[in-house]
Amino acid sequence: MSEPPRNPYKFIFFDCDNTITLSEYLAMETVSGLVNDILERNGKPERYTKETLIAKFVGYSFRKMLPEICQEHGIQLSTELLQYYASVEEERVIATFGARGQSCAGALKIIENLYEGGEYKLAIVSSSTLSRVQAQIEITGAAKYFEEDCVFSAQNSMSSPSSKPDPAIYIHAMEKLGAKPHECLAIEDSITGCRAAIRANIATIGYVGSYETGGHREFMKNTLKRAGCCVIMREWEDWDRVFQRMLEMECA
């Protein structure tokens, strides 16, 4: 009888938005209103919907997204204004999620099982602000599975704010936890998130269960696979099978 596959993993890193919490569409709905207000104030006729923002900016932090939008439309944005709009965005997104937010289907059950099993150190690695991540995991009940020093934000956890696909936040998380890349496994839903984890030499599962339509899921499945994800997970209920496949592939 053959031996079971070797398990190299000691740390499991979760993205937050649209991986643990079903928040990306709510956030983009809120952000589109703010972006359109900015465009209108600057006399620009273009307008965005949550769908157009998701198609172009899924996985981006607002601080990375807004300057790109302003540059595209010829709007000068001072550091002070960026800070102001970022504060407004954070406040509005947290309020929207508080009213309508929920966890991704099946995510909390898997995280609970991993937490109770005690075999892995669980961490959140996000491009969103720390206050937004904390609010979302508190609202959904996920917070109890993550120690306070295991929640990392590319906006707040490092001395120099960053955003995925920059791998800096993953590298920072590993340094803080004393982890080596081959000991880590990441779950990401966006191209920017997957690229960040992969650039940090972390084996990555691409999760597509949060995308609203079958066509978008299929598109993202192919996109994340091309980006270098080891395995694609369609739903959280597929976790056991997907994790076993990761071990068999020796993707780490």
Automatic annotation (TrEMBL):
Classification via Pfam families: Hydrolase (PF00702)
InterPro entries xrefs: Beta-PGM-like, HAD-like_sf, HAD-SF_hydro_IA, HAD_sf, PGP-like_dom2
GO MF terms held by the record: metal ion binding; phosphatase activity
Reported cofactor(s): Mg(2+)
Superkingdom assignment: Eukaryota
Keywords for this protein: Magnesium, Metal-binding
PANTHER family: 6-PHOSPHOGLUCONATE PHOSPHATASE
Protein name: HAD hydrolase, family IA
Lineage: Eukaryota, Fungi, Dikarya, Ascomycota, Pezizomycotina
